[in-house]
Amino acid sequence: MRAIYPGSFDPLHNGHLDVIERAAKVFDEVLVAVFVNATKRAVFNADERVRLVRESTRHIPNVRVEEGKGLLVDFAREKGVGVIIRGLRAVLDFDYEFQFALMNKKMAPDVETIFMLTNESHGYLSSTLIKELASYHADVSALVPAPVNQALVRYYQGK
After folding, report:
1. Which residue in 16, 49, 56, 131 is the catalytic one?
2. Does the active-site annotation cover 89?
3. Site annotated as Transition state stabilizer: where (predicted)?
4. What residue ranges define each of the domains in the chain, with the CATH number in brackets?
5. pLDDT digit string (tens) for 31-90?
6. Under DSSP, is residue 24 helix (H, G, I), strand (E, B) or coil?
7. Under 8 Å between Cβ of 34 and 53
8. Tell me, what DSSP letter sits at residue 121?
9. How confident is the model at residue 116 (pLDDT cuts 50, 70, 90)?
10. Is the pTM of this model over 0.90?
């Protein structure tokens, strides 16, 4: 069975990676779909994010990474994927994700959404927090995969 793990991943952090690694143990293939979120101000463009996620998941043989386009359920169907994985850190995430899961179910009854709790050691992580810390040149190397850390250091050195 194939699953899709969508997100903007700007940047990918260890909480995301935790969900990807565990999902890869459950599903035959996990497609990590990097979507552009027009409501968020991105540090990295879509191509950079796809590259960073690929480099960070290279050690997981059944993970594929590509840019997502359009509506998630349409993209999932186009790719022949029947399961959407969403990571949860806390109750607030559930409220937000539950709305999307219900809308996706309405639009695509054949596509299931599965929620995976992130490891409690990553429950406080968010891409927004990591970008803020990195913008002050704080060491975020323990929070993100090495390729992402290197890209953040390069990006914020120029600022």
Report:
1. 16
2. yes
3. 16
4. 2-157 (3.40.50.620)
5. 999 999 878 789 999 999 999 999 999 999 999 999 999 999 999 999 999 999 998 877
6. helix
7. yes
8. G
9. very high
10. yes
Q: CB count, 10 Å around CB of 125?
A: 20
Residues 6+ apart with CB under 8 A from 147: 52, 55, 56
Q: For residue 92, give the 3-state DSSP assignment.
A: helix
Tell me the Cα Rg of the chain.
Answer: 15
CA-to-CA dists, residue 7 to 19, 40, 46, 156, 158, angstroms: 12, 12, 11, 22, 26
Q: What is the pLDDT of residues 130-143, one digit of tens each?
A: 999 999 999 999 99
Of 26, 35, 34, the closest CA to residue 2 belongs to 26
127 classed as catalytic:
yes
Displacement of CA 158 from its chain's centroid (Å): 26
28: which 2 tokens? 């035959």
